[in-house]
Design brief:
Blueprint (H helix, E strand, L loop, with lengths): L3 E6 L6 E5 L4 E6 L3 H10 L9 E3 L5 H4 L2 H8 L3 E3 L1 H6 L9 E3 L5 E3 L2 E7 L8 E7 L2 E6 L7 H7 L4 E5 L4 H6 L4 H8 L7 H11 L6 E6 L9 H14 L5 E5 L8 E3 H13 L1
Parallel strand pairs: 3-4, 4-5, 5-6, 10-11, 11-12, 12-13
Antiparallel strand pairs: 1-2, 1-14, 2-3, 7-8, 8-9, 9-10
Length: about 270
């Protein structure tokens, strides 16, 4: 089996991505209840207790709430940074916790690297996951774009980045100013414009990739089609390499990606 990815949910109410390889079934983030995660995994033909590991980017509820209960129930290891392991320690006692870092570790038949991202958690991480020559890059909670994030995500064939909010819509919400300040801060969340600027940096190398926009705010952003159009218009003005844009939607399974299909699309791109 080649590399397959499905978004189970992505947003402030919870984030979870299912990754399958020839020998491994991985969950990247577990920001839904364990019961909901189990149901969604079964809907996609996955026995939760056959998971190879649960990879957690950071300890916030919308990324980690189901990790401990699901890992304990099914005797599945959790993979995270050392700081995230400390932050989750009260909910992961007795669970096999393995540390990911920039030098990489093997998880089943995949290799996993982490890279730091600016967010208000203990040790938040972006994740690179590689199998059979294909790489997926996750950067879900980032307050601003940093050069090393661009360099890390240039490794990926599928880039999953947050486009959390439209700045003007966020300022017009009924959120208290403290919440708006946190989201807009350097350790908060990327706006649509910042997401477009991150993709601009990634695509400077001219290589074709697929992109998922994730973690869209329900109250402070447009509908998925509008977000895609905004970012597509921005990138079109720069005449960057062709890309496929999709949205990992809130509260339900949505986007899917398969390395075999990506290979066929890449072949067509080179032929043209």
């Amino acid at each position: 089996m080649s590399l397959q990815v499905r978004s189970l949910a992505s947003g402030s109410s919870g984030n979870a991505f299912l990754v399958r390889t020839a020998q491994s079934t991985l969950l990247v983030d577990a920001g839904l209840s364990a019961r909901t995660l189990e149901r969604r995994l079964r809907e996609h033909g996955v026995d939760p207790c056959e998971l190879t590991a649960i990879i957690v980017s950071h300890e916030h509820h919308d990324h980690a709430q189901g990790a401990g209960p699901l890992a304990r129930r099914c005797s599945v290891p959790i993979v995270c940074t050392a700081g995230t392991a400390r932050a989750l320690s009260t909910t992961t006692q007795g669970i096999d916790v393995r540390l990911m870092h920039s030098e990489g570790i093997s998880v089943g038949d995949a290799d996993v690297w982490s890279f730091p991202v600016p967010h208000d958690a203990v040790e938040p991480a972006g994740v690179l996951l590689r199998h059979d020559g294909w790489t997926i890059g996750f950067a879900l909670d980032c307050g601003h774009v940093q050069l090393h994030m661009i360099e890390a995500l240039q490794e990926a064939d599928l880039v999953i980045v947050e486009a959390n909010h439209d700045r003007e819509r966020l300022l017009a919400t009924a959120y208290p100013w403290s919440t708006k300040h946190r989201i807009l801060g350097d350790r908060g969340h990327l706006s649509n414009l910042q997401a477009a600027q991150l993709l601009e940096g990634i695509f400077q190398d001219g290589r074709r990739r697929d992109v998922w926009l994730a973690h869209l705010s329900e109250k402070a952003n447009d509908q998925p089609r509008g977000v895609i159009q905004f970012i597509q218009n921005y990138l079109d003005m720069l005449a960057l390499a062709p890309l496929s844009l999709s949205v990992a939607q809130r509260d339900r399974p949505s986007a899917t990606w398969h390395s075999d299909q990506a290979l066929q699309q890449s072949d067509l791109f080179h032929i043209c």
